[in-house]
Design goal:
about 550 residues, alpha/beta, six-stranded mixed sheet, about 40% helix, Aldehyde dehydrogenase, Aldehyde_DH_NAD(P), Ald_DH_C, oxidoreductase
């Protein structure tokens, strides 16, 4: 029996959204503006409730929630409202001599019905996600797939788990992994892509995650009171509901999560030739040169790592590369900054978010218990399983084959890899999958230029961390394993708009040589036209070829 949303199946919900889109309602400029203004009003009126919901899910401080989610979401709406009138206008482009006289333009039009599946870790703003959910599928699930039992503890999340794989018949993906360790992340409401989808004139279905239940429940109850619920829907549910949604035909799907689930989403979309945007993640490297302001750099590294949801952010620095000779000084500077920000007992700090649930806590603890990092902790390491907190932890001289160097950490652990020369850092980074973000601290312009030229990443930031996302004129998205497509500011509008090419001509100025019967002389004139030579065009205008050939 299929999942139901207010008594309707997923297929019926999608059919209804398609009808609403076909009515043309969402294409109206005033409708788009009204929805965006409604979201701004909701943020203003419900800020306390939003912050409370985020705190219930992640124990995130009010300040961090406001700065990194609430304020950014409001800013995204206001920016879009300011620019939307310009964005929706057709863009005039040049024409060629072959079509003279003519006009050409690019007309943005909405795709139609959009499905947005995102992650739990930034449940309001939704720009970041868990890419490192280490899932060891337990015995029951494994036996359901006739694979036998798992040899390791089950840390399965209630994300798009085995149910999705079973119900969408993608068992081959699991078999190809070769082990029983999988990475799944949960779908969650993501406001910024929604803003872009609305601005572009689409109807939107949001699938929030049960992993952030308080925030999910807030949006499911409150958002429909502000926006047009017939065209913008929030559908809650677990794996079975997500699976059924993926079986439907959408006009575009955006998924925020990890590469393994992204492959499942892509396979589902491929059945209907549905385009997708994948905002994934990866191990974001941070290179630290000795030629820097160490005190300032340490503060920026600490706030970018631990001030971003306690490291549970896809653009948070995942590991550091520095020279052997500079590593000790860097560690000392990081310690000073950490103690200044979070005190001598960081587990008691109200400015550190907790780990989202016990499964993620166990995954992170498993990374610390890896024999290859035994004795490598130089700061932190304290854990409080009851409150789901892990103190900021720095590990020095971590080998590249350690478990935490092979998967995205997505938590408060920061390994430092040391090299003899920073030139070696590029080889280390490029030996891994392309990350969503890459960072460099240096005053050396040549090193900076080599970094930009040599390292491929979704985005880069020099001499700071995570702030690249605050610039609405820069696209946000990955490359390779870290994703495809991008959004942010106008890029969000473009992501959910089809760029329709429109060429207009009138009934004057016929060029006879385009019509049969073709002759060598006509071919010569056409070649001239294609090369931009105006003389053949003049010949065409006075119908010289016709007179010459009768």
């Amino acid at each position: 029996m299929g999942s139901e949303y207010e008594g309707r199946s997923a297929a019926e919900v999608v059919a209804g959204m398609k009808e609403r889109f076909a009515s043309g309602k969402t294409r109206i400029f005033q409708w788009r503006v009204a929805q965006l203004k409604a979201i701004v009003r909701m943020i203003d009126e419900k800020e306390d409730e939003i912050a409370a919901a985020i705190y219930e899910d992640l124990a995130k401080s009010r300040t961090e929630a406001c700065l990194q989610e609430i304020a950014l979401a409001k800013d995204a709406c206001l920016f879009t409202l300011k620019k939307l009138k310009h964005w929706v206008k057709p863009q005039k482009v040049s024409t060629s001599i072959l079509t003279f006289p003519s006009t050409a333009q690019i007309v943005p039009e909405p795709f139609g019905v959009i499905l947005i599946i995102s992650a739990w870790n930034y449940p309001f703003y939704g720009q970041r996600h868990p890419c490192g959910d280490n899932v060891n599928v337990g015995k029951v699930a494994m036996e359901s797939l006739a694979f036998g039992s798992s040899t390791q503890p089950c840390y399965a999340t209630n994300d798009i788990l085995v149910a999705v794989v079973i119900q969408t018949c993608f068992v081959a993906y699991i078999m190809d992994f070769g082990t029983y360790q999988y990475y799944f992340s949960s779908p969650v409401l993501s406001i910024e892509p929604v803003i872009g989808a609305i601005a572009a004139g689409n109807t939107v279905v949001l699938k929030p995650s049960e992993v952030a239940p308080s925030t999910s429940s807030f949006f499911a109850k409150v958002l429909p009171k502000y926006v047009d619920n017939s065209c913008i829907r929030v559908l809650e549910g677990s794996a079975s509901e997500t699976s059924e949604l993926l079986e439907q035909k959408w006009d575009k799907i955006m998924y925020t999560g990890n590469p393994r689930v992204a492959r499942i989403v892509m396979a589902a979309a491929a059945k209907h030739l549905t385009p997708v945007i994948l905002e994934l993640g990866g191990k974001c490297p941070l290179i630290v040169d000795s030629n820097i302001d160490l005190k300032v750099a340490a503060k920026r590294i600490v706030v970018g790592k631990w001030g971003s949801n306690s490291g549970q952010a896809c653009i948070a620095p995942d590991y550091i590369i520095t020279t052997k000779s500079f590593a000790a000084k860097l560690v000392d500077a990081l310690k000073i900054a950490l103690q200044k920000f979070y005190g001598k007992d960081p587990l008691q700090s109200t400015d550190l978010s907790r780990i989202v649930n016990i499964r993620h806590f166990a995954r992170l603890r498993n990374l610390l218990e890896d024999e290859k990092v035994s004795g490598k902790i130089v700061y932190g390491g304290l854990q409080d399983e009851k409150d789901l907190k892990i103190a900021p932890t720095i590990l020095l001289d971590v080998p590249c084959d350690a478990l935490m160097m092979e998967e995205e950490i997505f938590g408060p652990l920061l390994p430092i890899v040391t090299v003899d020369d920073l030139g070696q850092s590029f080889d280390i980074i490029n030996s891994k999958e392309k990350p969503l973000a890459a960072y460099l601290f240096t005053r050396d312009q040549r090193l900076e230029e080599n970094f930009v030229k040599t390292v491929s990443a979704g985005g880069m930031l020099i001499n700071d961390t995570i702030l690249q996302f605050t610039n609405r004129h820069l696209p946000f998205g990955g490359v390779g394993e870290s994703g495809m497509g991008f959004y942010h500011g106008k890029f969000s509008f473009d992501a959910f708009s089809h760029k329709k090419a429109v060429l207009r001509r009138c009934f004057i100025v016929e060029i006879p040589m385009r019509y049969p019967p073709y002759t060598p002389q006509k071919q010569k004139v056409v070649r001239g036209l294609m090369s931009g030579n105006v003389l053949p065009l003049l010949h065409a205008l006075i119908r010289w070829p016709n007179r010459r050939n009768g």
